[in-house]
Amino acid sequence: MSKPLHKASIRWLAGARLSILVAALGPACALAQPASPPPPTQAPEPTAAQRLMGDINPKLAELTDKVLFGDVWARPGLSPRDRSLVTVSALIAMNRPDQLRSHLQRAKDNGVTEAELIEAITHLAFYAGWPSAVTASTVARDVFQKK
Fold it and tell me: Which of 6, 88, 60 shows the shortest CA–CA distance to 80?
C-alpha cells in the first residue's frame, strides 16, 4: 500500500525526474522544456452550424458538425464533389432554397463548376418540377454573383 504524496514531494519528484533527464541527455534537452505552461489557446471559430442554430438548438448544431460533416461527408464511397452534386440535387428537388445557398457554395469549393450546377438545375426541372428549378436558378445567381 502506498501513502499519498504531499504537493512538495510531487514537485520534488517532477524536478528530480527533469534533472535526471538533463543529466542523461545533456543541457540542450532542457532548452526544449517550456519554462512555464503555454498560454491558453484561442477558442476556435464557430462552425457554420453553430452560427446558424447553435444558440437555439446546440444539439442539432453538434450533430451537424460531428455526424453529418464529420462522418457522413467523410465516408470514402463518394468524393466530396459527388456528395455535393447529390446534396444540391436533393435540396433542389425538395425546394429548400435556404440550405441550397450554402451547398451551392460548398459544391463550388468541392470542384463542381457553375456550368455543371446550372446544367444539374436544368436537368432537375424535368424531374423535380419547374418551380423548384426556377427557385434554384435564382439562388444560384445570388451565390455565383458573390464570388
Answer: 88
Same domain, 62 and 89: no
Contact 107, 144 (CB under 8 A): no
Q: Alpha helices of the chain — where are they, by DSSP H?
A: 7-25, 28-31, 48-53, 58-63, 80-93, 97-109, 114-128, 130-145
Q: What is the CATH number of the domain that holds 139?
A: 1.20.1290.10
3-class state of residue 22 by DSSP? helix
Residues in the chain: 147
Total domains, the chain: 2
Residues 71, 94: one domain? no
* Residues 71-124: tens digit of each pLDDT: 999 999 999 999 999 999 999 999 999 999 999 999 999 999 999 999 999 999
Domain of residue 62 covers: 47-76
* Residue 57 to residue 59: CA distance in whole angstroms: 6
Contact 92, 124 (CB under 8 A): yes
pTM as predicted: 0.69
